[in-house]
């Protein structure tokens, strides 16, 4: 172990969202000495959710931050350790262990790594966004749609996710409006057809060639209304910024009680480039999957993936938690096998101690 290494750990978990914390609880109970590195979004997406009503075991619901804090306390109770920091690079060393470098210069080594770094929902950066995220603005219709029953709701996006969320929200909304900056949607035909059926039934209205520029409201009362811009040729924001076309853009306020972004997620996997790990075209980790054990294994031995960094489909708290548990169990089996084979990494201090005992 080189001088710049803070310490060696049996297991490091990247991320302290619900998947990482679930993994930490199980890993700590298996005596795998997990170190959680919180990342640049401590607690993950749930910290943006004011109320969680669909996580099993809480009939009255629980706040997202409350659930995360309780799980973190549970993990540390069993021996997990958490620290602030952002992992900058992970690499596989010739001896079979991992080198984990943080952005503050600290370096750890580990026998195994669970990647539960999540996927960050893409946002627009419009005024009102930061203040109202979790207070009428959401990136998950399945999580939050029921809170706004009988309200008019706005979905922003034009792909499969937007079509799926708009379709889902018709269960609760008075009317669902879909704002898309172009005339044509990017979604698959099957989703467009389903939405068009809802349009015919009066449950969905399409706001084409339209973009959101501001969200109005406050944390106490939620979203009051939004500001939209429209141009018949699409991409109205660009045209609004161009003096030659600004006068052609229609800008207006629009009353809705909730806004849902459905413009995609960015999986947090950049720090894994040095491992050579396989990702799909969108950057999500490719894990083993299947029905038996080892479902969270990746193509890099000793590196496991869990939660939204792998799962681009379900992206729910309960499924992420389950994947975290699977990753901890898979990692425990891997570590136990290497320990029995005498293949776990041995630091210089440990080697010297073993020699002295001999």
Automatic annotation (TrEMBL):
Pfam family, one: Pyr_redox_2
Molecular function terms from GO: oxidoreductase activity, acting on a sulfur group of donors, NAD(P) as acceptor
SUPFAM superfamilies for this protein: FAD/NAD(P)-binding domain (SSF51905)
Top-rank taxon: Archaea
Domain FAD/NAD(P)-binding positions: 10-324
Name of the protein in its database record: Thioredoxin reductase
Organism, as annotated: Halorubrum tebenquichense DSM 14210
Keyword check for Flavoprotein: yes
InterPro entries noted in UniProt: FAD/NAD-bd_sf, FAD/NAD-binding_dom, Ferredoxin-NADP_redctase_2, Pyr_nucl-diS_OxRdtase_2_AS
Keywords: Disulfide bond, FAD, Flavoprotein, Oxidoreductase, Redox-active center
């Amino acid at each position: 172990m080189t001088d710049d290494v803070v310490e060696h750990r049996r297991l490091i978990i990247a991320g302290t969202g619900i998947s990482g914390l679930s993994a930490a609880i199980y890993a700590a109970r298996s005596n795998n000495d997990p170190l959680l590195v919180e990342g640049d979004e401590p607690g993950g997406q749930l910290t943006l959710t004011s109320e969680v009503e669909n996580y099993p075991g809480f009939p009255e619901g629980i706040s997202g931050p409350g659930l995360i804090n309780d799980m973190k306390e549970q993990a540390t109770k069993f021996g997990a350790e958490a620290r602030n920091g952002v992992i900058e690079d992970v690499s596989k060393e010739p001896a079979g262990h991992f080198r984990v470098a943080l952005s503050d210069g600290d370096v750890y080594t580990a026998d195994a790594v669970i990647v539960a770094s999540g996927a960050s929902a893409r946002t627009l950066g419009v005024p009102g966004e930061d203040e109202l995220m979790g207070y009428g603005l959401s990136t998950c219709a399945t999580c939050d749609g029921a809170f706004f029953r009988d309200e008019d709701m706005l979905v922003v996006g034009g792909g499969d996710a937007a079509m799926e969320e708009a379709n889902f929200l018709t269960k609760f909304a008075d009317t669902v409006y879909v704002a898309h900056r172009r005339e044509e949607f990017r979604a698959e035909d099957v989703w467009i057809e389903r939405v068009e059926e809802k349009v015919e039934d009066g449950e969905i209205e399409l706001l084409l060639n339209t973009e959101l520029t501001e969200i109005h409201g406050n944390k106490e009362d939620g979203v009051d209304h939004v500001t939209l811009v429209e141009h018949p040729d699409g991409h109205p924001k660009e045209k609004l910024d161009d003096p030659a076309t600004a006068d052609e853009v229609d800008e207006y306020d629009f009353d809705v009680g909730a806004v849902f972004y459905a413009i995609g997620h960015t999986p947090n996997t950049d720090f894994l480039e040095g491992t050579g790990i396989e990702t799909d075209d969108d950057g999500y980790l490719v894990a083993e999957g299947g029905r038996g054990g080892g479902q969270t294994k990746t193509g890099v031995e000793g590196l496991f993936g869990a939660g939204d960094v792998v799962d681009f489909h379900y992206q729910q708290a309960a499924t992420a938690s389950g994947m975290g548990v699977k990753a901890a169990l898979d990692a425990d089996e891997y570590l136990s096998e290497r320990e029995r084979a005498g293949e776990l990494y041995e630091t210089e201090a440990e080697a010297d101690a073993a020699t002295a005992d001999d």
